[in-house]
Amino acid sequence: MRTLADLAHSGRRVLVRVDLNVPMTTDAHGARTITDDGRIRACIPTIDVLRAAGCRVVLVAHLGRPKGEPNPAYSLAPVAVRLSELLGVPVPLVEDITGAKAQAAVANMHDGDVILLENIRFDARETSKTAADRESLAAELAALADAFVSDGFGVVHREQASVTDVAHLLPSAPGLLVRGESEVFTRILNDPQRPLVVLLGGSKVSDKLGVIGNLLERVDALLIGGGMAFTFLAGQGFEVGDSLLESDQIPATQEFMRRAQQRGIPLILPSDVVIADDFSADAHVRTVPVGEIPPGWRGLDIGPQTVEAFQSRIDTAGTVVWNGPMGVFEMAPFAAGTEAIARAIAASSAFSVVGGGDSAAAIRLLGIPENDFDHISTGGGASLEFLEGKRLPGLTALEEGTEQ
Ligand code: AMP
Question: Under the phi-then-psi rule, with left for phi > 0, alpha for psi from -120 to 50, and beta for the rest, what region is 81?
Fold first, then answer.
């Protein structure tokens, strides 16, 4: 596979797929504010390398799910402003993506310049299931550049025009972010510092079946919290009240628990939970053993005994991988479990990896220094698919590449 350095030559136009899909709030007048710029900051190193080499950098990215047509609510305009602040150079936003304006903007670039194409998902061909659609958009993107760098780790598990198809049309290489993330997850799967302790949370078991299945062959302990724990607890015969429950997944959780037992791998579930009589920050709240959730109440966080049990596993781990909050951390009464676990991981001497999405957001929301973790992934779905052992299409496309 080519490297970034192979492509970074002065005067080259380099198309860079980045992940700028940042969370935003919108005020009453429709003005949008970025609430977490982690993903924007994560793509700066690759852009810096290309600019330092004298490349002309054409960024392509998506924001949200705009349904294949232009929609100002999903414009990358606020992102262009933040990028420009972080890079210290103007970053013009090109409205028509691959149209005449884009072609003119690229033609007018100087070495070291950066432009950002408008939300690529304004074009329905980006996510089309029909290869010919994607290929036609990829050809238009490829016509804007001499080389392609794939640095959007958050989308490398997607078969999309600006992720996979364009990699077949231009000399291509992974950027620093994609390379770094891939190395971390490859090491976790193949050669982790042991004991390898994996902590899963979040809302859905069904999202994590593949990961649990693959990891059961590799981990030294699996800790399960968050809403997904209740389907496991139901599988053990506990009444879970109004807690999150995916009844159709109960047999799958029972099978996982059987396999873990057979292999002698501790699969540790909450022993106590913080329950509430409503899904709201001002509900009545109690902490109870898992066997004592009354009807009408729901578990919204792990309890202190569970925190302690998880913490002792984290303290003795060689590698800790964490994906998914332990509770509804967005509401203060149910944030303690997630915060305690995040702090335990931050304080541990293990190689610590935080899966993307909500766990990374939780860390930032709680104000825990990001440097206390060895790796905070920018890709929730991509990191999970990596841990499932799947081949990610965006990486396969780079391996197959083009010998142009
Ligand atoms: P996911 O998208 O699967 O990573 O789940 C993240 C979401 O899970 C967060 O928004 C949390 O609020 C939510 N969550 C965590 N624990 C619980 C719980 N016990 N009950 C309901 N939702 C939860």
Answer: alpha
Question: Active site residue: 204, 259, 286, 390, which one?
Answer: 204
Render pLDDT for 251-299 as a digit per residue (tens, 0 to 9). Answer: 999 999 999 999 999 999 999 999 999 999 999 999 999 999 999 999 9
pLDDT digits 0-9 by tens, 303-352: 999 999 999 999 999 999 999 999 999 999 999 999 999 999 999 999 99
Q: Give the pLDDT band (50/70/90) at residue 366.
A: confident
How far does residue 324's CA lie from ligand 1's centre (Å)?
A: 7
Rounded Cα–Cα distance for residues 124 and 196 (Å): 42
- Specify whether 357 is catalytic: yes
In the annotation, is 204 catalytic? yes
Task: Report how far residue 325's alpha carbon sits from residue 187's, in angstroms, rounded to the nearest whole number.
Answer: 23
Tell me the pLDDT band of 402, cut-offs 50, 70 and 90.
Answer: low
Q: Which of 394, 399, 363 is nearest to 381 (CA)?
A: 394
pLDDT at 400 over 90: no
Question: Is 154 labeled as catalytic in the residue annotation?
Answer: no
Closest atom of ligand 1 to CA, residue 208: 3
Choice from 203, 223, 246 to test ligand 1 binding pocket (greatest atom count within 8 A of CB): 203
CB atoms within 10 A of CB 255: 15
Q: Map out the domains of the chain with their CATH numbers.
A: 4-178 (3.40.50.1260), 192-387 (3.40.50.1260)
Ligand 1: residue whose CA is nearest its atom 10: 328
328 CA distance to ligand 1 centroid (A)? 5
Atom of ligand 1 nearest to the CA of 202: 5
Report pTM: 0.89
Sign (positive/negative) of CA torsion 33, 38, 40, 44? positive
Site residues for ligand 1, CB cut-off 6 Å = 201-204, 207, 226-227, 244, 299-300, 324-325, 327-328, 330, 357-358
Whole-angstrom distance, CA of residue 282 vs CA of residue 110: 56
